[in-house]
Design brief:
Helices cover 68% and strands 3% of the residues. The protein has 293 residues and is mainly α.
């Protein structure tokens, strides 16, 4: 092992002997944690891997051995699923529902969450408690159905979008995050003559980007996967979102599992892309504001 002499600040020499790298030891608890994580990862990723694998198989290969790897990659399954399932129409409807409802929800949620977080409205804590209670209540389907029916919005795109602009989870996440913003910003903005609307749009929205990205992803995924509301409130096939369209496609081509698997993969791709784009904001959005200082 080489020993080197190092001149210190006081002019004295110091012999510096490099230490051998320490061997990292894993305790039984750490190994057990990794084992549990591997089992959970396999439980989650196994069905997804089998779905993707099936989407590349031929019907004959699937009937012979559903878990074997395909001999050749059958990209034709995706083209067939896209054409037969009318994906263009269903995808356009779903993008319209998800984009419109998410934009309306996020803007209104920030305008509601900020005064609750700051305590600017009387009874803000009680209102926040109602949103927490709403997490544990089932959806009021019968009153909701009667309301949409009486408004003449049954089986319309507008009525369906109105059903998707409520979500107590996003309000709770936003309130907890906005509480972490310093109140000095409010005072400084007021002293500079900044109005309330301008303050929210130019200061609060940029500072809340991480949590807004989290709410966008959670809400958009919920709309993308929504099936019950689409089944109840939409009977016109031209208005079907992609989940409802997949039910129709399964009823017609359910025997062709590779094409059906390709359709499910196509349905999931947009949300995976959205998650990958916004993932760097999601963790920070969920963790910031979770710890009370």
């Amino acid at each position: 092992m080489n020993t080197t002499a190092v001149v210190q600040e006081d002019g004295l020499l110091k012999l510096d002997t490099p230490q051998p790298p320490r061997k990292r030891r894993f305790s039984l608890g750490t190994l057990g944690s990794y084992a549990i994580l591997l089992v959970l990862a396999a439980a989650y990723l196994g069905p997804l891997a089998m779905l993707v694998n099936t989407s590349f198989m031929t019907q004959r290969e699937f009937n012979r051995n559903a878990t074997a790897l395909p001999a050749t990659i059958q990209l034709e399954n995706y083209a067939e699923a896209w054409e037969r399932a009318n994906f263009t129409q269903y995808l356009a409807n779903t993008v319209l529902y998800a984009a419109t409802a998410t934009a309306v929800y996020v803007i209104t949620a920030v305008f509601l969450a900020f005064p609750i977080a700051r305590g600017y409205i009387r009874g803000g804590n009680a209102i926040f408690l109602l949103f927490v209670i709403a997490l544990f209540l089932p959806p009021a389907l019968i009153p909701q159905f009667q309301l949409i029916l009486n408004l003449g919005l049954y089986n319309t795109r507008t009525g369906y979008i109105m059903l998707l602009v409520t979500n107590p989870v996003g309000i709770i996440i936003l309130v907890n995050y906005l509480k972490s913003l310093p109140r000095e910003l409010d005072e400084a903005a007021a002293m500079d003559g900044c109005g309330y609307l301008r303050f929210l749009m130019t200061i609060v929205f940029p500072l809340a980007r991480p949590v807004i990205a989290t709410v966008i992803v959670l809400h958009a995924i919920g709309i993308w996967n929504e099936l019950i509301l689409a089944t109840i409130y939409l009977t016109n096939q031209d208005f079907y979102p992609i989940t409802r369209g997949m039910i129709v496609f399964q009823g017609v081509y359910g025997f062709n599992w590779p094409v059906l698997a390709a359709g499910v993969v196509l349905m999931a791709i947009p949300m995976v892309i959205l998650f990958l784009i916004l993932q760097r904001y999601i963790i920070s959005g969920l963790t910031q504001g979770a710890v009370k200082e």
